[in-house]
Amino acid sequence: MKYIVIGLGIFGASIAEKLSGMGNEVIGVDIKMSKVESIKEKITHAISLDATDPEAVKNLPLRDTDVVIVGIGEDKGANIMTAALMKQLHVKRLISRAVDPLQRMVLEAMGVTEIIHPEKETADRWAKRLNLEGVVDSFELDGDYSIIETRIPKEYDGKTVEEIGIKKEFNLIVLTTMKVTNEKSEIGIDKDCTAVQGIARASTKLNKGDIMVLYGHNKDIRSLLEEHKKFKEAN
Question: Which positions fall inside the RCK N-terminal domain (predicted)?
């Protein structure tokens, strides 16, 4: 995967380093050369430029990048301007930082649907979420075991937990499922809302597009996600 992280403060630098350490190609961008210098040996590339300047941004390989993360924190105006420019340039996937509810509301109004609150969410958690395709959210219990949320794939639609045989095949436990519905925010923006369906049982029926919460060893979780990816690509 290829990432561009704009804004190399504590949060941006941390997530850039973690994603790079997971084997991804990461380009770090900051207007301050000192921040670029401090990280250039830890990620693929580090560039100093003004990400609010349309001409300067043309130097970035946006078309070949899978995810752009706007991690600018201290300058909310620059954050919003950069996010707006990324939307205008139609990047494949845009994730932006927000430091307060008003900034989040502005980003949502611009159509940014993935928003990070670093004061509440760790860079490590987001790095894991981004690095594993299909993960909606994750919580690592220790170095080996995690709890993850993942979308229920097409091949599981209409089947029960017992029928998919996830415990036998992957040694993973389905803890619960979450119903996903689309609702309007206060400013009229579409957003997904989830409702926990209680403790999953063998007879619990799964529906495509909803979320299942899994517990197990990290290598088994990765095996399951890779299997889902292969099925999706083949169909």
Answer: 1-116
